[in-house]
Amino acid sequence: MTDKENSYQAVMARRGKIMEDSLRINYDDFELEGIAFDYEKMMSEAAYSMEEMIEIQRSVGVGNTPIVELKNFTRLARKYAQPGKGARIFVKDEAANASGSFKDRRAAVSVYHAKKLGYKGVVTATSGNYGAAVACHAAKLGLNCIVVQECFDSKGLGQPEIVEKARKCEALGAEVVQLTVGPELFYQFLQLIEETGYFNASLYTPFGIAGVETLGYEIVKQFEAEVGQQPDVVVATNAGGGNLTGTARGMRQAGNTTCKVVGASVDLSGLHMASDTDFNRKSFTTGHTGFGVPFSTWPDRSDVPRSAARPLRYMDRYVMIRQGEVFFITEALANLEGLEKGPAGNTSLAAAFVLAQEMPEDQIILVQETEYTGAGKSVQPQLSFARENGIELYFGDPKDEVPGKSIVLPASPEKITVRDIDLQRLRNSLVKNSLKEATMPLSQMELEFLAAEINSTVAEVEKIIAKLNGRGE
């Protein structure tokens, strides 16, 4: 191709065609009136049945991961709870999957589908865990794999966790294209897909999200068989929304429609994830508000025309936890339960430790994933990297933590708290963002679509629109 054909503007202008060729999904088939599209039709026609996905995953060492009761953690939570409070805390140990995280579920289905369609390779853009999962399953099925990764800032510095994940992707046979942080990620991703003719193993396709449905399905079946009681609350780390979306959908398919689903993210308020200067002033690559909030309020900002991850359809509560609290809980999990796990799952564990103290003792709260750990993902290298980048570290009250400036490790477990993110505000933002693409007035079909998007009613959508137009109370 000529330089003009490879320019940013030219590549972005034909992204729809590139996507269709790399997925063989015609997203136009699911479009309805105006801003509305048929989400359930997309999921049912473009993905696999639960039985098929379970078979696909089991054949490559994915799924059927154990549930583990954290009895010592529960005991600690009850120490700080009011009498009669302190729910039993469980985790679903997704680190037992083939490459060490729940993202094996997404990758196994996506790579299987690529092989079935005759693609010679797969490409994905990821900070790491998903790249390792795609590389793992591409190796199993004999496909080539390219992982596009935002790895460094403009000074060539990369976080230990990201560098660790890049090494793992390479060890599993992938070619890793390492980029500096910035908007060129999607552009170069599209270029690679077009040049290679490989399958787009995006996190946000129906295959990727449906693959996580097996996780929710297993939770219900395992608790039924092994515990004799269903979880009352499931806590999911929330970034792009696929983890929470897939888990909630799977639980519903298995018959548990009453469990409350709570999203949890690390509080990185004030840091911009596309900013070169902010990139290394955080301690986690995902699972934080820098992804969780924007992807919740506008899911279709992802690398496919319509994202299958739509967390506001399923989220009952959304809480933030701080970096220092996650590091503390990571150490506590190893010391109290003999489980050394990576930081992402421990985001939701830190939140669950607090939420359990609000719940009756006879209830159950489940952290629905863990992830593998390694030299670059453990606490000490991450804290050392933070200190080297000018972040102040000390023990005290985590409420004093300022993202990008300090990490405050709690002086005592009782100082660990959560802060609620206003779900109504997120719902309002989703409607507001949708109206930017809409022609007013909205049709009944569009109103019903937005009601489903925010897990509410048409009347509530109309009320939000009225407020946005200055006509509400």
Descriptive notes:
This protein is of the alpha/beta class and 473 residues long. 45% of the residues lie in helices and 13% in strands. The chain is built from 19 helices and 13 strands. It has a seven-stranded mixed β-sheet, sandwiched between helices. Strand 7, helix 11 (242-253) and strand 8 (260-266) form a beta-alpha-beta unit. Helix 6 (103-117) runs parallel beside helix 7, helix 10 crosses helix 11 and helix 18 crosses helix 19 (458-468). The mean pLDDT is 93.
Q: Which parts are unreliable, with pLDDT below 50 for 5 consecutive residues or more?
A: none
State the total count of DSSP E strands: 13
What percent of the residues sit in helical stretches (DSSP H or I)?
A: 40-55%
Helix and strand content put the structural class at alpha/beta
- Average pLDDT: 93
